[in-house]
Write a structure and sequence with these properties.
The chain is built from 7 helices and 7 strands; from the N terminus they run H-E-H-E-E-H-E-H-E-H-E-H-H-E. The protein has about 260 residues and is an alpha/beta fold. The structure holds NADP nicotinamide-adenine-dinucleotide phosphate (NAP). NADP nicotinamide-adenine-dinucleotide phosphate binds next to helix 2.
């Protein structure tokens, strides 16, 4: 092997490891957050996983000796502050936690429900960033999570579109304000996570089949796809102010759900 090639291999290896780094995943008790927590653990990080459900109610994982499980509700800023005080120094934060969206036509929406989604998702994500950022070591990063509704509105999801678009915009503003700390957002497409567990097996298979037929990637997304993107954003030292879409091409097609 040539010296240049050897150097490249060593460099790539170094960039993808999170050895010796602490990664905090808020929303890591399920779905994409759990997928990202697992990916970070596989990249040798020490992982702190947070959500509202108590540790005893969470799925057991083979990687659990690398993980600390904690409880937090992102809608309670004092609890978020206490959480980060307890965690201390960290390297990377990923926030996937999202309160239920309660889809509803705009004319039937009540303001309290609309505000509770905006508050929980936007201000919940920002509370995590505000209390994590001052504790981040050099080379640290913050990653938020939205969805393709940010750029592809659907009837009944106007608050989701508004909230995701606001979070993507503020993530770029924070990249500027908090640099050299890096701030990015992952915009996932449809992902086969626990979020869809309200569907019975048949309806869930139909959803997968629709996606297979329509999406350029010819399959529904997996939590591993999002975990891979999350570790990339944590480990690439030159990516900031970016919205990384990991969607299988969802916005390129119309999908009648
Ligand atoms: N899955 C998809 O197809 C998809 C596609 C695009 C966008 N999205 C968006 O991404 C979000 C996450 O998706 P997912 O598939 O990972 O969903 P999920 O499996 O339902 O996970 C949601 C996570 O958020 C946590 N959470 C919810 N409310 C919280 C709160 N107030 N405080 C702290 N943690 C809270 C939950 O933990 P606890 O229950 O322990 O609190 C859970 O870990 C979705 O809600 C949706 O807005 C999803």
């Amino acid at each position: 092997m040539s010296m240049e090639r050897l150097t490249l291999v060593v460099d790539i290896g170094r960039m993808q490891t999170l050895r010796g780094q602490r990664v905090v995943v808020i929303g890591g008790t399920s779905g994409m957050g759990r997928g990202a927590a697992r990916a970070a653990a596989e990249a040798s990080a020490e992982v702190v996983v947070a959500g509202r459900r108590p540790p005893g109610a969470r799925a057991p994982e083979a990687w659990k000796d690398q993980v600390t499980e904690v409880v937090v509700d992102v809608t309670d800023e004092r609890a978020v502050r206490d959480l980060f005080q307890g965690i201390g120094k960290l390297d990377h934060l990923l926030v996937t936690a999202t309160p239920p969206a309660s889809p509803r036509p705009f004319l039937e929406q009540d303001e309290a429900t609309a505000r509770s989604f905006l508050d929980g998702k936007l201000f919940g994500s920002l509370a995590c960033a505000r209390h994590a950022a001052p504790r981040m070591r050099s080379g640290g990063s913050i990653t938020f999570l939205t969805g393709c509704a940010a750029i592809r509105p659907r009837p009944g999801l106007s608050m989701v579109t508004a909230t995701f678009a606001a979070l993507e915009a503020i993530s770029q503003a924070l990249a500027l304000e908090l640099g050299p700390l890096r701030v990015n957002t992952i915009r996932p497409g449809l992902v086969d996570s626990e979020m869809w567990s309200f569907l019975d097996d048949r309806a869930r298979e139909q959803l997968r089949a629709k996606v297979r037929a329509a999406f350029p990637a010819r399959r529904i997304g997996s939590v591993e796809d999002i975990g891979h993107a999350a570790v990339f954003l944590m480990t690439n030292p030159y990516v900031t102010g970016t919205v990384l879409e990991v969607s299988g091409g969802e916005p390129l097609v119309s999908l009648d759900l």
